[in-house]
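Protein chain data
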Amino acid sequence: MPDLIVVNGEGLPAADAVRRSIIHQEEFLERSIELLLLRQYAASHGIVNTDEQLQLALDEMRYQRGLESVEKARQWMKANHQTELSLQDAIDGMLIRNKVRNSIPEEQIAAYYAEHQLEFEKVTLYSIRLDSEEKAKELYAQITEEGANFHVLAMEHSTDSETAPKGGYVGEMTRAMLSGEIEAAVFKAKPGDVIGPIKTSKGWNLFKVAKIHKPTLAEVRSNIQMTLFLQLLAKLRAEAKIEYPIFESEEVAVA
């Protein structure tokens, strides 16, 4: 069996490399399978690259790598064990991948957005974490009845060493990032509202809702497109018949 690579005189047989890629689901083999599946899908859906598109992409790659001259390009190909045909093949695969992703129908993207719209919402959240419910109620009263500054109190009293120095700033949070009770309370609130006390696994918390952002379809379109593209890839992978001729002559015995 030929070696795939030799390092300091020690060879790695091609079959062993493939086995490791299979058992560890390594990117090397998975991306190769993915490319074959995408090319088959593209061919069955009339998705092709023109010579002009391939040449433009090749030129862009050369300029990005500083390979404007023919001699520099030849030196780079030799150093990276590439040929003109292998480069064209790699660029063709890259363009096919992009075209298949961009072929996801707009109505499918819109339908996904309508079904998952709440998942894209984000809240800009601040928190004060305290050791007791009594202390949390006391600070809540100071904020809501006496006009005390939430952020100052967070810096003075919060036991959360990460958020306290930032005035209680937690960050932009999606619904999935919050526990059920907190998520329900936070996303029902209005910007500026203070909520609590709410019992968490680390203490009693007061939360301040600074902003709730409900993205439009245009804002999350590219994310949805990528999600649907990955779902398509997973479907193609699940339905594919994948064989490994390199092992056909071997018998595998399990003790």
